[in-house]
Amino acid sequence: MSLTLEEVEHIANLARLRLSDEEKERYRQQLSAILEYAARLQELDTSQIPPTSSVLPPRSVLRGDEPRTDLTLEQILANAPQSEERQFRVPPVLE
Amino acid sequence: MTDYEIVIGLETHIQLNTTTKIFCSCKADSWFDPPNTNICPVCTGLPGVLPVLNQAVVEKGMLLAAAMHAEIQPVSYFDRKNYFYPDLPKGFQISQYDRSLARGGYLDLPMPSGYVRRVSIHKLHMEEDAGKTKNAGRERLIDFNRCGVPLVEMVTGPDLRSADEAAQYLIRLRQLLRWIGVSEADMEKGHLRCDANVSIRPRGADYLNPKTEIKNVNSIEAVRDAIEHEAARQIREVEAGNRIEAWTLEWDEDAGVLRKMRSKETEADYRYFREPDLLSLPITDEWKERVLAGLPELPLERRARFMQAYGLPEYDADILTGERNLSDYFEAAVQAYGGDPKRVSNWLMNDLLRMLNDTGRTADQLKVTPQYLAEILKLVDANTVNTSTGKALLAKVDQSGKAPRAIVEEEGLAQVSDDSAIRAVVQEVLNESPKEVESYRAGKVTLMGWFVGQVMKKMRGKADPSLARGILEELLGGG
Questions:
Q1: Secondary structure (DSSP) of B322-356
Q2: Do B151 and B18 meet the contact criterion of CB atoms below 8 Å apart?
Q3: What pLDDT score was predicted for residue A52?
Q4: E strand or H helix at B106
Q5: For this UniProt entry, which segments traverse the membrane (chain A) (predicted)?
Q6: Cα separation, B434 vs B379, whole angstroms
C-alpha cells in the first residue's frame, strides 16, 4: 500500500496544508507506512469480536430542550481576528 | 425524436422546531434576532468544548421517521464530515453517516391526475446546520446564529418522474412536517431546503444516466422551473450527440437560469469518521413507544377516511386535510351536528375558509367553534333562521364569541314562519305596487322574485322565503 505524490497533494489540499516538495516525499513515506500497518491489522479475523469504535457501553446522554445563554457577543467576538457589524470578517473564499 | 422521461431524486434539509440547538443550549430560532445573538463556545467551535445531544431533536426525528414509514434503528451513531468553509467554525459538521437514526421509508403522493407515486427514502439522518456568510465588498461577514440548528436530512430514491411530481413531494412533505409538529416548514425562512438530482433516459429504460445536481431550489415554483429547464437542456445535449456531465448547478430564481458551480468534494474527500465526542445513541423500545404514542393519524390516512366514512368527494377531503387543525375542526363539527357531513364541508369550504384566509388565522383560533357551527346549521335546518341569516351569524359569532342561539334571540333574527304575519306584509306590498301586480297578472311572472324581495326587505330578511312565495302566489294568482 504505497501512496502516490498526487494523493499526498490531494490530502494536503483537503487539510489546507501547503507542503514543500521535500515534505511531500517525507509524508508520502510516513503515510504509506501507516497504511501498511493498518492493512496488516485488517488481516486479522475480527468477525467474532464486537465492534469497539467506542469503548463505552451504549448509553443515552441527553440534554433537555431548555434555552440558556452563555458568553456575551463581545466575549465571543474578542476571538475574531477582525469583526464588523456584529459579525466575523474573513477574507474572500477561495476561487 | 426519442421519447424521454425525467428521473429525479430530491435531497431535503428540514429544520426541526426545537427550542434549542442540537448540541448546545443556544436558542435555535434566530429569525428575528440580529447576527451572532444565539451563539456560545460549543456552536462557534471554541477549543475544548463538548457537544451534548438535545433529547427533543431525537424525539422529533423519531416522529418524522415513523411518519415516513422508516425503521428507527435501536442504535445509531454520529460522525464527523470534514471540510473547510468559513461558515463552519469547527472545520467539520457533526452528522450521521452509515448508522443513522432510521432506515428505509416512503411517502405516497396522490397526483391530481389520479395516480399515486410512491417515493422511497434512501437516507434519513440528524445533523447540525452551518452558519451564514454574506459578501461585504471584497471580504465576507459571518453570522453563526444558524450554526448547530437541528436538521434532518432526507434523501429520496430516483423515483420521481416529472417536475410536477417533485413539486408534489415538497407540498406533501411540508404538509406532513406541520401536521406532526416537527418543523414550521416555511420554505421562505429556509426551514425546508431542497437540492434536486436530475437525469433523463428513454421512456421505459431501467438504467440510470449521469445526473446533474441542482442546488438551492428553495420554493415549490423553483423546483418545478429548475427541473424543467435542466431536463430540456439535457434532452437538447443528448439529441445533439453530447454526453451529460455530472455537474453541480445552481438555480438563480430571479433570472430563471441555471449556473454551473465549482465542483465540490467527492464523498471520500469528506473523510467521515465516528464523532469521538458523542456516545452512540441507543433507542429503547420503551422510549420509542412513548414518543410514537404522540404520532397523530397522518394526513393521507385521514384524507382516505374522510372520503370513506363521511362520503366526501376527493376534492373536499383533500382541502379539509390540508392542515391538521382544519381537519380536527371539521370532524368536531360533524360530530356536534349529527347531520350530513357534506353540508358541514360546504359551509367550511365556502365560508369559514374565506374567513380564515382573510384574517390569516388557523381553524383553532376561530371564535366560531365547531359546536357553534353545528348550532347554526341546526338553526337553519329547523327553519329558525334562513340560510342567508345563518351565514351572517358566522361573522357575528366570530366577532362576539357569543352562542348563535343567544344572538338570534338578542337581535330578533328568528325567521317569521307565522302565516298571518307574512300575509299582512304581502298584502301591504301588493297595495303599494299596483303596476307590478298588473304586469304580473298580465303574464310577467318573473316579477315573483321582486315581490319576494320586497317582502323580505320589509321583514328585515326574517321571513321564511318559501312561505312568503306561497302566500304571494295565492294572492296574485287570483287574477
A1: SSHHHHHHHHHHHHHH-S-HHHHHHHIIIIIHHHH
A2: no
A3: 73
A4: strand B106-110
A5: none
A6: 36
CB–CB of A87 and B84 under 8 A?
no
Q: Rounded to two decimals, what is the model's pTM? A: 0.86
Q: Which position has the higher pLDDT, B305 or B384?
A: B305
Residues in chain B with CB shorter than 8 Å from the CB of A91 are: 139-140
The beta-carbon neighbor of A87 closest among B35, B56, B269 is: B35
Nearest CA in chain B to A10: B269
Asked if residue A79 is part of any domain, the answer here is no
pLDDT at B178: 97
- Is A34 a domain residue? yes
Taken in order of first residue, the domains within chain B and their CATH numbers are 4-291 (no CATH), 299-411 (no CATH), 419-477 (1.10.10.410)
Question: What's the pLDDT score for residue A95?
Answer: 47
Q: What is the CATH number of the domain that holds A12?
A: 1.10.20.60
Residue B1 reports pLDDT greater than 80: no
- Rounded to 10 degrees, the C-alpha dihedral B425/B426/B429/B431 comes to -100
Instruction: With CA atoms as reference, report the closest residue to B229 among B200, B264, B205.
Output: B200
* Chain segment A5-44, per-residue pLDDT in tens: 999 999 999 888 999 999 999 999 999 999 999 999 989 9
Put simply, the chain B residues between 24 and 43 with a CB less than 8 A from any chain A CB are 24-27, 34-37, 39-41
Interface check A18 vs B, CB under 8 A: no
A94 shares contact with chain B (CB less than 8 Å): no
Domain total of chain A: 1
Q: How far is the C-alpha of B314 from the C-alpha of B301, rounded, in Å?
A: 13
CA B268 to chain centre: 37
Could you give the ipTM of this predicted complex? 0.88
**Residues in CB range of B175: below 8 A, 6 or more apart:** B299, B322, B323
Q: Is residue A12 part of a domain?
A: yes
Instruction: Note whether B140 contacts A54, CB cutoff 8 Å.
Output: no
Q: Could you give the CA distance from residue B219 to residue B251 in angstroms, rounded to a whole number? A: 11
Domain that holds residue A35: 5-42
- Name which of B46, B49, B140 to mutate to probe chain A: the one with the most chain A Cβ atoms within 10 A of its Cβ: B140
Nine-digit cell string for A63 = 440534554
CA A38 to centroid of chain Cα atoms: 18
The CA-CA-CA angle for residues B122, B283, B105, to 5°, reads: 20
Question: How many CA atoms within 13 Å lie on the side-chain side of B462?
Answer: 18
Touching check for B144 and chain A: CB below 8 Å?
Answer: yes
| B57 CB-side CA count, 13 A | 29
* pLDDT higher at A58 or A65: A65
Identify whether A59 is part of a domain. no
Condensed to tens digits (0 to 9), the pLDDT of residues B274-291 reads 999 999 999 999 999 999
Asked whether B187 and B175 are in contact (CB, 8 A), the reply is no
Interface test with A, best of B23, B36, B145 (most A CBs within 10 A): B36
List CB contacts of B260: < 8 A, sequence separation 6 or more.
B247, B248, B249, B250
**Helix, strand, or coil (residue B126):** strand
- Output Rg (C-alpha) for chain B, integer angstroms: 31
